Amino acid sequence: MEITPGPKVKLDSKDKLILTELQLNARQSIAQIAKKTKLPRDVVVYRIKRLEELKVIRGHHTVLNHSRLGHPLFAYVFFSSYNLEPEKEKKFINYLSAQKNIVYVAKNSGEFDYTIGVCAKDYMQFDEILREIRQKFISVIKEFKITPVIQEYKFDMMYNLI
Length: 162
Fold this sequence. Notes:
The protein is α+β, with helices and mostly antiparallel strands. The protein folds into two domains: 13-53, Winged helix-like DNA-binding domain superfamily/Winged helix DNA-binding domain (Arc Repressor Mutant, subunit A); 73-148, Alpha-Beta Plaits. The protein is built from five helices and four strands; from the N terminus they run αααβαββαβ. Helix 1 (13-24) packs across helix 2 (30-37), helix 1 (13-24) packs across helix 3 and helix 2 packs across helix 3. The two termini are 20 Å apart.
């Protein structure tokens, strides 16, 4: 899901109520959101559709427990790269995005140019994934650091920002 730059979208109190409810539970029905926000159903439907069109809502997703799916190892890997030509950068990002065990890909500003999130069955599989990336993009990757995640405490709850 791409972050689309653009002007700040002005949200009113109704938009904020709806977004808060969606952040708390995106699976709840329109009827439930309407009841909790005390807004008519058609207003809720219209506003969600409008917020999607404005790219305020980038998607609705379920947060999976990777450990319960047989992939207990989750780690962030940070890469710094040599000055990349746009075509090499696109190839690198496309490759990372196409890998099933890589569940997060981001371009950064700062010490590291890219961050990926990797889910693996064990350290052997994790090592194979990284070894393949490093071999395939030896002329791209200058340095990398690995940070295994032990416990997550907060994930994607942005309703406090609205």
